[in-house]
Amino acid sequence: MKKLIIGLTGASGSAYFLRLADALSRRELELHLIATEHGTQVMEYETGVRLEERLLLWRQGPAKIIEEDNQNLFSPVASGSFQCDGMLILPCSMSAAAQISAGISETLLTRAADVMIKEKRPLVLVPRETPLSPVHLKNLYRLSKLGVTILPAMPGFYNRPQSMDDLIDFVAGKAMDSLGLQNDCYRRWEGKEKNEEKD
Ligand SMILES: Cc1cc2nc3c(=O)[nH]c(=O)nc-3n(C[C@H](O)[C@H](O)[C@H](O)COP(=O)(O)O)c2cc1C
Prior knowledge:
The chain is of the alpha/beta class. It is built from 7 helices and 6 strands.
């Protein structure tokens, strides 16, 4: 069974996290969820969803879901000996990105990310901030150079989204793609002939 770590931080865009966790909870996976205090608060503020309540729903699916305590550095996921197939942080705050890029690992989220980097395992960050300052860009660039995938929460419009759900699905689907998780969350680009008529 694949083991994944999913992080939620206090950046805007918790709807992406909800969509991803909804999709993953329907699969045979071991999911370790790490929510920061701000992540939980911002999600409740933005979506009205309480993590504890949503967990009850997700636990009805086939996934084995472990809710991690962000302050518990004794968790298995804090160690390189924990065999993990990948970690996704979405949305990822600039604060979390800065700490990870500097190797500061005082919480379980940042420690688990640090472990992914040192063990050369897939780590994907979905940052959400605008505009990005030189500090943000430098941190993201440094992470990218370390092999971390930076997948900004930037939905595409070429598939002609009709609703907010379409926009959310696009980013959640791209995040799943980045870890090689097959999905049909969003409509993929199928190409277009140069001389094809506009519809
Ligand atoms: C409503 C709200 C929206 C926020 N949106 C963002 C955001 O989009 N990006 C970001 O980097 N920080 C955002 N913040 C600030 C972070 O929550 C803050 O930096 C926090 O310390 C992040 O902590 P964490 O990484 O431990 O979750 C937001 C805060 C609030 C209250």
